[in-house]
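Example S7 (structure tokens).
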């Protein structure tokens, strides 16, 4: 049992609340970016009073083919925090101890919360895209996840090209040191080695694909995507270009990203709401997904 100190609000919460993802439970407490303090059910590794984080992946069966082959993010019977079980928009949350993460002392509660999904899944997206140091990388959409991933790419000496529709997103990308920034109809001035799409739009995926060199990879960072438009195979996919989806995350992703975040001193820009105003926080996320890159925390 955790006493919830802070819980980030994610676009996936919007997909759940608005019905883009099918309902699993008749009534649900959302929230899957939890910073909490252990109060009951302590273990030797998680004593009472320890501050830990909880993410979207709240548990796996450990026995299916995927778990046995090191792909627990694709588990056949997963637990999703704030979706298949109750989450963190609450005073207390019940979680699996083996899916909690001790938080580095340098990460304060409010700024740690958004790292637990937006940060981790952004980091996994970089892995799925196969990004190597010094490559040219496109980020299509520049919300909270992309704004956290850019710091890692810069530490890897990558050139970062950002395509996004919101003016405030473009300003944020420029302020964070993107190599080049364009609007949704612009094409990066160079061929990209890799690209990650963050907007839940099939059209954006095709735009990213059109910006790749031969052999390049597009990773789609979205749990829900609208319809993919038809595209010209000969011009856009031929040449061993690849489209890959990003599905959930593993505990290794979480542990490695949190270590990197502490080392790089990654601090998301946040807006805070009281728990009683969780509905207002969700509305703010909906607006921010269009106009800004702040992460909302209750």
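Recovered sequence:
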């Amino acid at each position: 049992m955790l006493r919830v100190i802070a819980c980030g609000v994610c676009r996936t919460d919007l997909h759940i609340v608005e019905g883009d993802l099918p309902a699993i439970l008749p009534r649900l407490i959302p929230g899957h970016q939890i910073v909490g303090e252990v109060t009951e059910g302590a273990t030797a590794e998680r004593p009472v009073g320890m501050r830990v984080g909880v993410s979207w992946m709240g548990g796996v069966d450990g026995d299916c083919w995927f778990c046995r082959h090191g792909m627990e993010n694709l588990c056949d019977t997963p637990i999703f925090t704030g979706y298949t079980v109750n989450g963190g928009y609450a005073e207390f949350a019940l979680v699996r101890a083996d899916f909690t993460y001790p938080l580095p002392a340098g990460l304060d509660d409010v700024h740690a919360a958004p790292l637990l999904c937006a940060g981790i899944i952004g980091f996994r997206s970089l892995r799925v895209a196969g990004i190597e140091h010094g490559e040219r990388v496109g980020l299509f959409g520049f919300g909270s996840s992309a704004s956290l991933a850019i710091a890692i790419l810069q530490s890897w000496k990558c050139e970062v090209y950002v395509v996004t529709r919101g003016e405030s997103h473009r300003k944020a990308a420029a302020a964070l040191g993107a190599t080049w920034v364009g609007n949704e109809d612009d094409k990066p001035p160079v061929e990209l080695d890799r690209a990650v799409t963050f907007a839940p739009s099939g059209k954006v995926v095709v735009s990213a694909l059109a910006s790749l060199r031969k052999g390049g990879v597009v990773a789609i960072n979205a749990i829900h995507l609208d319809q993919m438009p038809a595209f010209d195979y000969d011009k856009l996919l031929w040449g061993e270009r690849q489209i890959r989806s990003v599905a959930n995350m593993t505990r290794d992703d979480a542990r490695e990203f949190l270590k990197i975040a502490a080392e790089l001193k990654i601090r998301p820009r946040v807006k805070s709401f009281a728990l009683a105003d969780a509905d207002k926080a969700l509305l703010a996320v909906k607006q921010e997904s269009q106009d800004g890159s702040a992460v909302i925390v209750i």
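Notes on this example. Residues 273 and 280 are 8 Å apart (CA to CA).
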